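Thread: "does anyone have the structure for this chain?"

Original post by V.I.:
We have the sequence but no experimental structure in hand. Need at least a predicted one for the grant figures.
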Amino acid sequence: MSLKLDHIGYNRGSFSLRDISISVPEGSILGIGGQNGSGKSTLLKLMYGFYRPDSGRIFLEKKALSEISTREISRNIAVVNQEISEPFNFTALEVVKLSGYSRNDETISPLEAMEKCGISHLSNRTFSELSGGEKRLVIIAAAVYQDAKIILMDEPTAFLDVDKEERVKAIIRNLNEDGRTLILVLHDINLLNSICSHVVLLKEGRIIAEGKKETVLTLENLENAYSTRFRILEDAGPYKFAPADYKLM
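Reply from O.Q.:
Generated one for you, tokens below.
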């Protein structure tokens, strides 16, 4: 399932995305990085039709997104937003079930989707009573149950405890191994490096670098994107990049 953005422009007040062209490699994990306010979440919302571009076109499997029904989009694209609404008095299992409205068949049950995310024990808990990390995992399980080929996630590890962050990272890798394409908005540069195969860096609504992570995550590109000098950490485990004046304790 391919997703392509062709010279997208989007203007709202003083902010604009300008001339955004991306071909998301099928089966990749594409990370979108950049400073706060660079347009990362706005770009993600354009990718699934929540916002409509003012110029340019977005194509899902060579068909313009603007010509595809909401049901068909949801059959092919699942979304995990950073902001989580709380459905009144629903259990976690019922929240997962809601995401299956666009499915034609059931290759996986809602409970199996929760099991894939390690949270089947939460199935009968009231969603509003769960912790923030547990709610995030329930919404990811809902995306798994939706069974879309493309999954978009906005800051999926933000504000999570270490154990739940590691679980989310494992889920992302497993989904990718199962053939899903994932597009992630991430503020953590080292997470962009450790989990993504491809990266787009934004600055003030423009792409300043995009492609395979090895060619994008350079000191020059990071300094340009984040207006901060970086250095490469040697033998620091999963941490490769740090601000130039950062000192390991």
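V.I.: this helps a lot. The chain has nine helices and twelve strands.
O.Q.: and The longest strand covers residues 3-12.
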